[in-house]
Specification:
globular; single chain; five-stranded mixed β-sheet; 2 domains; alpha/beta; Nucleotidyltransferase, domain 5
Length: 313
């Protein structure tokens, strides 16, 4: 193969997705592993290497782009990510470079997804937007004046750890009341047990052995009143938070990405309603809520690949 390709790796709290793409976003291969299947990051890297080698594409690689929670583009390390079972500071970019013999660059997973959305997805026309990832946790990638904001230390964009409820739900970061404990797949599941409602006792959610966020949305669609209340509560929490965040960067749009966002327009419309209800009047009716157009292509993998073209070339 003469085409230059990049390896994009998206490290999530639940799964690690990876794929091979060219500069136009064409995908040659994609796969995933459960994150907790690997006791160390070295074991994960070795399995990814073996998969890419079997495809016969190691020599075609231009570089490796990695998106990870608490990923720091300045150091190439994951720093104390609360939703990962690997603890401490992990020099993931250096570990990939050592095994593959190719240059590697790492950033926050939401930043990688934002890059993917801007280049290939539903933010192509935007210079000012915030991508909100709604997965195991909640992340954000902030683009202002066409540039991704990293901050002085590479850690800008941790919207999930804005505290929205004083002394609220415990968070993996060690604090309480963080937004992601309410608005994320994990937060939705926590609401099943922690949200009080007179409709709770009769809900089908309490009859399930294990509950996922997908279950909550599905039952809400089918008329389960308590599930509907959870979705409404989640949308209200996110909409209110976005109203406050608007004062920071005044984006043209918020783009929702991840499992919760895949529930579609009804949830996005609820978020928009609550955002407009709480937002400062100078921003009213100026900001869109969009849904990622890359769910079937994996924006984070594409974004991670695009790091290679944008940062390493």
């Amino acid at each position: 193969m003469k085409t230059k390709i990049a390896l994009g790796v998206d490290v999530g709290g639940t799964n690690v997705a990876f794929g091979l793409c060219d500069e136009k976003g064409n995908s040659f291969f994609e796969s995933s592993f459960p994150t907790k299947s690997f006791d160390t990051p070295e074991l994960l890297i070795e399995d990814i290497y073996q998969v890419v080698e079997k495809q016969g594409l190691i020599d075609c690689l231009t570089g490796i782009g990695i998106g990870a929670p608490n990923g720091n583009i300045n150091s190439g390390t994951i720093e104390f990510a609360p939703n990962l079972h690997w603890k401490g500071s992990i020099p993931l970019a250096a570990l990939f470079e050592e095994r593959f013999g190719k240059p590697a660059i790492l950033t926050n997973d939401a930043n990688a997804a934002a890059i993917g959305e801007r280049i290939y997805g539903n933010a192509k026309d935007l210079d000012d937007f915030v991508l909100i990832t709604l997965g195991t946790g909640l992340g954000s990638g902030i683009v202002a004046n066409g540039r991704l904001l990293y901050g002085h230390d590479g850690f800008a964009g941790e919207y999930g750890h804005f505290r929205v409820i004083p002394n609220g739900r415990s968070c993996g970061c060690g604090r309480r009341g963080c937004l992601e404990t309410y608005v994320s797949a994990t937060g939705v599941v926590r609401s099943v047990t922690e949200l009080e409602s007179p409709n709770k006792a009769t809900s089908a959610l309490l009859k399930l052995e294990t509950v996922s966020a997908e279950d909550v949305f599905e039952l809400a669609t089918n008329g389960d009143t308590f599930a509907e209340e959870i979705i409404e509560y989640t949308a209200a929490m996110l909409g209110s938070a976005l109203a406050d965040y608007t004062c920071f960067s005044s984006p043209k749009a918020y783009v929702l990405f991840g499992g919760i966002a895949q529930s579609g327009a009804p949830f996005a419309e609820k978020v928009k309603t609550y955002m407009e209800r709480e937002i400062l009047n100078i921003y009213q009716n100026k900001i869109e809520i969009r849904i990622s157009s890359l769910h079937d292509k994996n924006a984070a993998v594409l974004g991670s690949c695009s790091l290679v073209w944008n940062e390493l070339n």
